[in-house]
Amino acid sequence: MNWRDIEYENHGQTAVITLNCPEKLNAVRISTLDEIVAALDMAGRHR
Fold first, then answer.
1. Count: domains in the chain
2. Where are the beta strands (DSSP E) in the chain?
3. Is the pTM of this model over 0.90?
C-alpha cells in the first residue's frame, strides 16, 4: 500500500508505524488517522 503520512514496517510479530509528514511537522490529520487505522488493520492480519 502507498502511504502518504506514515511509514509501515512489519517485522514478524512486530509492526512499526511511524508518522512521516515532516512538511506538516507530523501533524495528525483525518487522512493520517485513516492511514493509521488501515495500518493497524494490516498488522492485525499479519499476526
1. 1
2. 6-11, 14-19
3. no
